[in-house]
Design brief:
CATH class of the largest domain: Mainly Alpha
Distance between the termini: 47 Å
CATH topology of the largest domain: Glutathione S-transferase Yfyf (Class Pi), Chain A, domain 2
Radius of gyration: 18 Å
Helix content: 55-70%
Order of helices and strands: EHEHEEHHHHHHHH
Amino acid sequence: MSAPYILVSHSLCPYVQRAAIVLDEKGVPFERRDISLADKPAWFHSVSPLGKTPVLLIGNDALFESSVICEYLDETVGAPLHPHDPLERAKHRAWMAYGSELLDAIGAFYRAPDEAALQARARDIRQRFERLERVIGEGPYFAHSFSLVDAVFGPVFRYFDVFDQIADFGFWAGLPQVQRWRSALAARPSVQRAVDPAYGGLLRNFIASRGGALARRAA
């Protein structure tokens, strides 16, 4: 019997990882179908109006946009990962959006063309982590139990496993809550399984292909 869900994905996409984490946390079988965004198959254009991954195929229906996919799964499968209280749920959605903004900052970091821009982007990321340090609960996750916010930030923190191997950019000093949260997510099986074991090497190759200051540091 085929899996009820097909997750159309790209190997490095953090938004795909969010959906994969939620599917895993919900304990439902799914098939992962990787595509090349540089050579998209013809059928992909009919299911992804924005031309992006992830897309969740559910029978003859298709959902695009990771936040929509995660919310749909949370509403329809298993115990909810969002808080029950409407205000807390809204706050969690706001921090999920913050995670998306942080991904944009990470993209600006690895695309920085020179050392001055690289350091400026690193300071920007550090300031975003400082804001998180002030709002994270007692843990081990963003709140006490694993939530959709954690599904968003697992892929965020994964970038830094590679960045930290390249150099110390000052992201973590004096941020014990953020570091604890990062470690808890790295140990979570659903977060670990959301990427191919070769992810680190693939990310390094991707950084090298950008040809910027971080690529020169890595070389």
